[in-house]
Structure to design on (561 residues):
């Protein structure tokens, strides 16, 4: 088991390293930072001084090593836009993003999986139709629109919750609800489909034939077998959640990573963009690693394969 | 229906969508006789704007979807034909791109290279290409094992011709289904990016951009968000339903 985790972790690290390298090279080849920062009318001497200052006169591999060394010490340079330490910006925004996305994810699972199970068991009943119709609708409205609808209902119309900002816990309610609703819809659809497929397997029919009560069939036989596809799906959803933060946080002016990333992109603040992409990659890689480890825990076959 | 509207947008629109009339700003729907759906913050006719925006959105999705279908399918074919390290490379990149949210990749690319319409459409073109690549690769591998491809090879038909004339028509079904499933996702991605202000830029207009404008005037003019939003949802929903229908039809015939 330890060897399994270690080999997966090594691969995750390789992915992270190549992303860092790729982003770095693309950024360096996309334009001269000295020209970008000082404007086109800067004297050659000023440009040269700027390059020496930021170490841009060295070769690209050297620069990359220096960047990596600094990055490992938590130094990602300064924001071009307001001179703040990039590391500080990231440090402040990560907890905000985690608050919203993790709680939304948990709520989505708590809502989506039971809804999917009920819909699968009572297939083609009114409950099933209701759950599925809600889920399909919830999935085809873009997330930022759901957010805006929530703002309209709760902030403009009922005036019970603040529309945007990120100072108090009340500000977190709407972003979390938006996220949770959208993901619960996906989870419910997928859980239903997976469980229905499992329920058609011969061993379920055999268990039924043995006279095992239906509730036990679902809990002991069907759910463990539906777990692996579900974990895969939740992993994919968790990474897509990261992409979603970009939209939801912007709608609610919630100053997490997504909103900061959008701001940096809009202002061409490349130091922040670069660091943010790395942080996002760390999250993606971590999620994927967790999913792989969960697989191994759920299914002994995968453990021995490596 | 939405397609028809989008195609004939220019003839249907009662006004030029950029035409401004400061005197009739923020007119709600059905209030002014000549502005059927009301006007926006510059007094532009909302109906005409909506039509133009739907057209842009669908066009971007259409071009982007086609590019990614062709690009992804060709890579899938290459992968299946050569196998070995080419296969590993293509599928490796596909896995990598599939695991990172495309929204982040797209924003990163737009940050580095600046936003231009051409780049934006190309970006939509690489969105989800890996799905076609994986799908096409699998289909080609199984088609190669089938009798008809083998037969064509034995009588000396060149590989390219086998792929285009014999295998492609046989595996087109699932690829078409993939296209219809992809289309709404591109529409959503486009509106998302335009909503963030890095996609379609004024004076061009798309549904996402309209919603983004409307957001600023949300409290006093709800219809500026609600109507483009409604069109967006109807578009994606109807294409999704079409995709589901096609999948059921084509799958039944395949199995």
């Amino acid at each position: 088991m330890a060897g399994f985790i270690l080999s997966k972790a090594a691969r995750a690290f390789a992915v992270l390293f190549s992303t860092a390298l790729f982003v770095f090279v693309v950024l360096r080849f996309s334009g001269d930072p000295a020209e970008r920062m000082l404007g086109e009318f800067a004297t050659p001497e000023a440009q040269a001084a700027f390059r020496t200052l930021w170490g841009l006169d060295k070769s690209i591999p050297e620069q990359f090593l220096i960047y990596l060394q600094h990055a490992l010490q938590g130094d990602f340079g300064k924001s071009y836009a307001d001179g703040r330490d990039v590391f500080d910006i990231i440090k402040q925004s990560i907890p905000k993003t985690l608050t919203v996305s993790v709680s939304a994810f948990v709520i989505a699972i708590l809502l989506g999986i039971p809804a999917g199970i009920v819909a699968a068991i009572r297939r083609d009943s009114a409950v099933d139709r209701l759950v599925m119709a809600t889920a399909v609708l919830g999935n085809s409205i873009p997330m930022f629109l759901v957010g805006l609808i929530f703002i309209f209902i709760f902030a403009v119309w009922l005036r019970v919750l603040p529309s945007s900002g990120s100072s108090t816990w009340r500000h977190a309610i709407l972003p979390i609800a938006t996220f949770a609703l959208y993901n619960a819809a996906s989870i419910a659809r997928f859980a239903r489909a997976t469980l229905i497929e499992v329920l058609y397997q011969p061993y379920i029919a055999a268990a039924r034939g043995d006279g095992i009560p239906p509730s036990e069939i679902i809990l002991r036989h069907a759910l463990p077998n539906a777990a692996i596809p579900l974990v895969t799906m939740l992993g994919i959803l968790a990474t897509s959640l990261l992409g979603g933060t970009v939209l939801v946080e912007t709608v609610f002016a919630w100053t997490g990573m997504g909103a900061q990333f959008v701001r940096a992109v809009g202002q061409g603040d490349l130091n922040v963009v670069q660091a943010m992409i790395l942080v996002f990659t760390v999250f993606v890689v971590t999620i994927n690693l967790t999913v792989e480890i969960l697989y191994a825990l759920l299914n002994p076959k995968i453990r021995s394969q490596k | 229906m939405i397609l028809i509207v989008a195609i004939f947008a220019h003839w249907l629109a009662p006004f030029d969508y950029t035409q401004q009339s400061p005197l009739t700003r923020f007119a709600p729907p059905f209030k002014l006789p000549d502005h059927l759906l009301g006007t926006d913050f510059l007094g532009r006719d909302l109906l005409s704007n909506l039509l133009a925006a739907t057209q842009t959105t669908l066009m971007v999705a259409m071009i982007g979807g086609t590019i990614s279908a062709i690009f992804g399918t060709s890579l899938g074919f290459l992968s299946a034909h050569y196998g070995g390290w080419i296969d590993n490379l293509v599928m490796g990149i596909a896995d990598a791109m599939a695991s990172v949210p495309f929204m982040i990749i797209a924003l990163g690319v737009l940050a580095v290279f600046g936003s231009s319409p051409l780049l934006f459409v190309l970006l939509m073109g690489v969105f989800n290409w890996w799905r076609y690549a994986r799908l096409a690769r699998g289909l080609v591998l199984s088609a190669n094992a089938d009798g008809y491809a083998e037969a064509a090879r034995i009588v000396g038909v060149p590989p390219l011709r086998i792929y285009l004339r014999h295998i492609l028509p046989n595996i087109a079904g699932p690829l078409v289904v993939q296209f219809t499933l992809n289309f709404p996702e591109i529409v959503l991605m486009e509106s998302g990016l335009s909503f963030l202000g890095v996609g379609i830029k004024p004076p061009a207009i798309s549904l996402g951009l309209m919603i983004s404008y409307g957001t600023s005037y949300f409290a006093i003019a709800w219809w500026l968000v609600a109507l483009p939003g409604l069109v967006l949802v109807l578009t994606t929903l109807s294409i999704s339903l079409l995709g589901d229908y096609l999948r059921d039809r084509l799958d039944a015939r395949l199995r």
Observations:
- Chain A has two domains: 2-72, 86-303.
- Chain A has a mean pLDDT of 77.
